[in-house]
């Protein structure tokens, strides 16, 4: 087995480009020849948002200044998502605070199911029109994925959100490879595959450079 490339994806489950980026990253991993370890990290686009059941389009129109502009924005990203086989139904989506959703993803990660939990939350918000800020809805979604909500994990989410701020992350999705190399935005699958390969090569070179030298010969002279 080769070096395991570690990738952290910072995203929010109400971010359409994050949904696309999440989908593309997992496609890239399937195409990549080596082992990859993915960790899903939280980011909140609106940490002060309230889960009140408000339709997402209404919230976006208030924030971005009207229905026409919002229709153009959502239409564009929905079209991109459709090319990736994802259905974004903004007409169904509900504005939500995502802290508790991120807590569930963290709990799912303890059982190796964070990718499944993340995917289910994306589909719940963007396709099914479910309120991912509603406790009862979240409990149902967790049960579907096989995640037991113990009520734990809030501290870990806060720590991860603080780390994102310390790293200067202002937009998502963001892919952080080996805690060193960052790629931002919902990049094409082939770009992510290339990034995985490049990071593996750089990591291999760094490991080789750290190997201590032994006795040998150089320029006609030998160590004795």
Descriptive overview:
The chain has 224 residues and is α+β, with helices and mostly antiparallel strands. The chain has a single domain, classed as Glutaredoxin (3-Layer(aba) Sandwich), CATH 3.40.30. It is 50% helix and 12% strand. The protein is built from eight helices and six strands. The strands form two sheets. A four-stranded mixed β-sheet has the order 2-1-3-4, with helices on both faces. The chain has a two-stranded antiparallel sheet with strand order 5-6. It is globular. The relative contact order is 0.19.
Distance, first to last CA = 37 Å
Query: By CATH's scheme, which homologous superfamily applies?
Result: Glutaredoxin
Q: Which structural class do the helices and strands define?
A: alpha+beta
Largest sheet strand order: 2-1-3-4
The helix fraction, in percent, is 40-55%
The total tally of domains equals 1
Q: What's the average pLDDT?
A: 92
Q: What is the tally of beta strands?
A: 6
CATH domain topology: Glutaredoxin
CATH class: Alpha Beta
Shape descriptor reads globular
Largest sheet: 4 strands, mixed
Strand content: 5-15%
Q: C-alpha Rg, in Å?
A: 21 Å
The low-confidence runs, each spanning 5 or more residues with pLDDT under 50, are: 214-224
**What is the second-level CATH architecture?**
3-Layer(aba) Sandwich
